[in-house]
Amino acid sequence: MRVFNLSFPATLIAVRDALRAAVARFIRLMTEEEAGTLELILAEILNNIVEHSYGESEEGVIALSIVRDRKGLNCSVSDDGIPLPPACLDLRDRDPERPDPSSLPEGGFGWFLIRDLATDLGYHRQDGRNLLAFRMPLEPVEILQEG
Fold this sequence. Notes:
Blueprint: E1 2-9, H1 12-26, H2 32-53, E2 61-69, E3 72-79, H3 108-117, E4 119-126, E5 129-137, H4 141-146
Antiparallel strand pairs: 1-2, 2-3, 3-5, 4-5
Helix pairs in contact: 1-2, 2-3
InterPro entries: Anti-sigma-factor_SerPK (IPR050267), HATPase_C_sf (IPR036890), HATPase_dom (IPR003594)
Protein name: Histidine kinase/HSP90-like ATPase domain-containing protein
Keywords: Kinase, Serine/threonine-protein kinase, Transferase
């Protein structure tokens, strides 16, 4: 089992560095496609936090934790910015087909991608902190190590 924990400032530059570090930590334990999916999911989540949770204030901190087990990656992201709007995670009455990005409100396609690519997506707010968690299924490690 591998673990990755990182806290970093809520800035776009720090997000870019965090993405690079997170993918590098697990790159040998996943396919190239899986690495791209992880980077896409995390980029959408982390950039949304910087742009919407903290807005103009660059005084926030984001904490990212990823644990690799036999079934995939368990990821959690926390911050103390504004609460996540419930519509971001509302799966009811959603068309499962890929929407036209131009038909969605700002950020709508990003949340579609997150919901489409991640499993067990959940959100909780407690004591002024946001916690977003998800799982990203991966091919079993044994299969990757054979090839």
